[in-house]
Prior knowledge:
By secondary structure, the chain is an alpha+beta fold. The chain has 17 helices and 23 strands. The structure holds adenosine-5'-diphosphate.
Amino acid sequence: MKYILALDQGTTSSRAIVFDRQGRAVASAQQEFRQSFPRPGWVEHDAREIWASQRAVAAQALRDVLEGQSLHALAGEVAIGITNQRETTVLWDRATGEPVAPAIVWQDRRTAARCDELRRQGKAGLIQRKTGLVIDAYFSGTKLQWLLEHVPGARARAQRGELAFGTIDSWLIWNLTGGTTHVTDASNASRTLLFNLHTLQWDDELLRLLDIPRSVLPQVVPSCGVLGHTASAVFGASLPIAGLAGDQQAATFGQACFAPGMAKNTYGTGCFMLMNTGDAAVASRNQLLSTVGWQGPPQQARNTAYCLEGGVFMAGATIQWLRDGLQMIQSAPEVEALAALVPDTGDVYLVPAFAGLGAPDWDGYARGTLIGMTRGTTRAHIARAALEAIALQVADVFAAMARDSGIALKELRVDGGASSNNLLMQMQADFLGVPVVRPKVTETTALGAAYLAGLATGFWRDAQEISAQWQVDRRFEPQMTGRDRTAKLARWRQAVERAKGWDNVTP
Ligand code: ADP
């Protein structure tokens, strides 16, 4: 094996990256695809377009590596790892391979009322216990139920075994293998509301609750292990598919967070923090999610890593708002210089609850709040408050994780677009009181999928070899005193309290 090809199927684009044995990206290609918003709150993708774009970028990246040789030359040289946008739901016809409806994207809110109903029926406890999730339209289960109920004939056809359900990983693998393999892995399955986190199997009680026939479900296979081969027609050679994980779990693996107590945070549009909690799922008391990180590698076949997960809705998006909404800056990176014009925010706080608050507050009625301004407040103070708001929200999730797990986190590994902001990373270290560590390779999602596939095929020997490869770009040490940190976090919590419930107050 010479290379690992990572397929990174994201929400707005499909990417493919070829990694060599040193974990260096030697070729990559990317293609965006259409987003449809057919009604308020609805978000759809064309699953065929997802497959076409993913196949095209994979072939492009492989061609770049081959430099003119025919694709036949790849046989025995390349293994594939897959990572994907999570929760997005596809239902297709097993005979024709055609989707029966547009894919319902994770952001889609059409099943919010169904989720309210489940909550009213008192199912929250059951669902949290079995799946580690909160009841929310975000996850696949109610999306699949919606498709079965609203696509004409779908339920009857499903009952006859004619339809297949999958998240994007399953859909890609189905197509890569020429319609012969219908599988998913536990990291993806654990986002469906249908998967029992403890038995690591589809759960009959949950299937009954959401009225889902077993016949539509994929088989659950390890995240690390050869699960099938590409049909020769796809890339001109039959390649093993050997690694698979949802995007955030893959990023955690790509950050080499192999030991319990290691955590990573991705600073993109939103933030996703995941912490490895070892071989038992931790039941959150602070409204975080429990999820499977990955299963495998094969030499440790029964070794399932669980994670706690906490999300912040508005992270990099807060900076986009400064750019597009307030037109205070022209590009996101400019925020760093603007915020650096002042030594502090002058006691100004921005609570970017534009879409409510996620973990650990979960207040859908909270709204954006800018508080503490005086006549001396400038754009620079507001820009600085926006950066602080990202780091402070992450600090809240970090604290919730420590409370839930009983583990004091020793450092935080970071990646994602906004992790390039040095001021933000310094603030983060200050507010956490532990070092923030940024690796050289911040393509950790694709790298994680590659690592899983590489371990399964002997391309890399073991987790130690990968940990040794993982290299630090920069380490940010906390510079704030414990006393200042406590005061800062307390002041922030006061601001958050002011933002809560705003949309629920009748004038
Ligand atoms: P996603 O994968 O969610 O699209 P990315 O990881 O590509 O996100 O990161 C893009 C986000 O990061 C944008 O929301 C952008 O505003 C923010 N961002 C990019 N560069 C910076 C920067 N230097 N400082 C702060 N935010 C940044």
